[in-house]
Amino acid sequence: MPGYKISLFHWAILFASLLLFGSCGSKKKYAETNKIYSQKTRKTADSLKAALPSPIIPIKEEKDEETENKKKVPLSQEAKEAMLHREGLRKDLDWVGAIHFDSRKPNFVIIHHTAQNSVDQTIRTFTLPHTKVSAHYLIGREGEVFQMLNDYLRGWHAGKGKWGNITDMNSVSIGIELDNNGKEPFPDIQINALLTLLDTLKTNYDIPQANFLGHADIAPSRKNDPSVFFPWKKLYERGFGLWYNESYLLTPPKDFNALEALRLIGYDISDPKAAIRTFKRKFIVTDLSEELTLYDRTVIYNLYKRYL
Ligand SMILES: [Zn+2]
What we know:
This protein has 308 residues and is of the alpha/beta class. Among the domains are: 103-241, Peptidoglycan recognition protein-like (Lysozyme-like), CATH 3.40.80.10; 244-308, no CATH class. The protein is 43% helix and 10% strand. It has helices spanning 2-29, 31-49, 77-87, 119-127, 169-172, 188-205, 215-218, 232-237, 258-265, 272-283, 294-307; strands spanning 59-63, 70-74, 108-113, 137-139, 145-147, 173-178, 212-214. The strands form two sheets. A five-stranded mixed beta sheet has the order 5-4-6-3-7, sandwiched between helices. Strand 1 and strand 2 (70-74) form a beta hairpin.
């Protein structure tokens, strides 16, 4: 029947337009911040094209005569030249471009929980001008994955922290945020999406198994994410992060220094209690006291042997 055919055709058109409008709607929602992202990537690309890094402008502090407050004043040309000459901050260099290079690659992955209640809330946090935080990926409770930064860009997810002697974790890592308020289990569908993403990153950048860490690992006195609900053992079984052999635990020697072993694994032990707490949250889970039991020391010994 011609009438039936026409109405079916119209339904199809209507359905297609709804899909189109739907996707335009979501694109439109973030159009402003996507524009800022593009502008910033262009600026970053321009800085790569420059032969030399921007010169460091030395400044000195002076007392403001009216307010008595200290203020930063640029040095005079003469003082600047004297300082550059003396301290060698910037010499005149001859530039010859070598022709073999590519971009530096991420070598760590840092896993976080958002401590927020929805993906929308986190996207908003990462796109507001004043928050100064971001991550490369955000994974929702239903396993939906949002990429928010190119892997080669330096995200602002790690903050102040340390692993071994690396003090700028943002420069070497990819940050992944899991939508989770910190007090709830992580659904399987979300963890499976994470595992797929980790597989891709590990393959693309040849990231060592031991370099898949949690935010708390690199900032034990400031952070607790991801929480005790995070399935680190499952990750280890898939090749991400290290774990100990639970069914064959070697007894540590009498003079074994567990705290020093944590330091050798990578932990910042400047606040020993925080380091112990962080280790226990991840590997012991059921006892979060700040004292090390014989069992804790045994686990550390077995882990430490794997890191050697
Ligand atoms: Zn975090």
